[in-house]
Design a protein that fits this description.
Blueprint: E1 5-10, H1 14-22, H2 25-34, H3 39-61, E2 65-70, E3 83-88, H4 91-98, E4 105-109, H5 128-136, E5 142-152, E6 157-160, E7 163-168, E8 174-180, E9 183-189, E10 192-195, H6 203-215, H7 219-226, E11 236-240, E12 255-258, E13 264-268, E14 274-278, E15 285-287, E16 293-306
Parallel strand pairs: 1-2, 1-3, 3-4, 4-16
Antiparallel strand pairs: 5-6, 5-16, 7-10, 7-14, 8-9, 8-13, 10-11, 11-12, 13-16, 14-15
């Protein structure tokens, strides 16, 4: 690929969010310290991030033009095939970015290895120079990640890198009709989780952990369940959370594997507050109220992480 510029994706630091909330750094510091919190921790984290960002910008400028955009602009920013996307932040920012770049190669850079696990952040600021040189020579590999896609009956769509949540937006029962493998039933539950392979060690794993605790299963059984889907598998896993059996609701459809040929269909029975949100970001959602149908399947779009 012939790249002409780098688009750096970043998010606000926690210190910046605190300053926005309290209107000034002094007021934010007063609030945190009065609550016996460690304000210095936020400052160190912020300084580390900006030191890494500065190093990344300096490195990129030796090779290509670059532009920095904030996470909030992702849904409206228009990427081109000439863009090389560099994400600096936590793993969740890589997941969120992948949904908007239409398969462009992504470089995840970990700005703070002491604080961030970096499962999706395969590079450090120090390694970026060599990585970009190789990329410009065409000498790089990508790891392809299968994503999920939700399609509503009105044509609206939403992608998920890790997972979807389908249900009520608060701690009330989620009510819907669910259809899978030719079987359909009415359910009341705590919502449905649909996970990709990339998301299988996240929210989905916590559900398996809960089930394992109840069933007193051994840890090796847990690992088997968590590895049902690899990152590049054309498969998704869905689980119904806490289904409730009553005179009008059933619990027979509770777990399944979604494939290209076998999708999951859900019809909302919630008059309001029904939602579908992806990757744990509640602001990235579709309304899912009574009369709305959704079909969850494998997305044609793929995420491509440069490794």
């Amino acid at each position: 690929m012939d790249f002409e510029r780098v688009i750096i994706i970043r998010d606000k630091t926690r210190l910046e969010l605190l300053i926005e909330r309290f209107n000034s750094k002094a007021q934010a510091k007063f609030y945190i310290e009065r609550s016996e919190g460690d304000f210095e921790y936020y400052e160190i984290e912020n300084n580390t991030f900006y030191k890494s960002l500065s190093e990344i910008q300096k490195t990129i400028s030796k090779h290509l033009k670059f532009k920095v955009i904030n996470r909030s602009f992702l849904p409206t920013y228009i990427f081109t095939e000439k863009d090389l996307v560099v994400v600096i932040g936590q793993d969740g920012l890589v997941a969120n970015t992948a949904k908007y770049v239409d398969g462009l190669p992504l470089i995840g850079v970990n700005p703070d290895s002491e604080r961030y696990d970096g499962v999706l952040l395969k590079h450090t600021p120090n390694e970026l120079d060599a990585a970009i040189k190789n990329i410009l020579k065409g000498d790089f590999e990508t790891k392809q990640v299968t994503m999920a896609k939700a399609v509503l009956n009105d044509g609206q769509t939403l992608l998920a890198f890790n997972d979807f949540y389908i249900g009520a937006d608060s701690h009330v029962s989620s009510r819907y009709d669910i259809e899978f493998k030719g079987k359909k039933e009415r359910q009341s539950s705590s919502g449905i989780i649909v996970s990709t392979g990339a998301g299988s060690t996240g929210w989905l794993s916590s559900i398996f952990n809960m089930a394992n605790n109840i069933n007193r299963q051994k840890s090796n059984r847990e690992k088997q369940q968590q590895s049902l889907v690899r990152w590049d598998d054309e498969k998704l896993v869905f689980v119904v959370r806490e289904p409730f059996l009553s005179k009008v609701t059933q619990t027979d459809i509770g777990f399944g594997i979604i494939t290209k040929r076998q999708t999951l269909k859900i019809e909302s029975n919630m008059p309001n507050k029904g939602v579908i949100f992806s990757d744990g970001i509640e602001s990235d959602f579709l309304n899912f109220n009574s009369g709305t149908h959704v079909e969850i399947g494998i997305a044609d779009e793929k995420a491509n992480l440069i490794i």
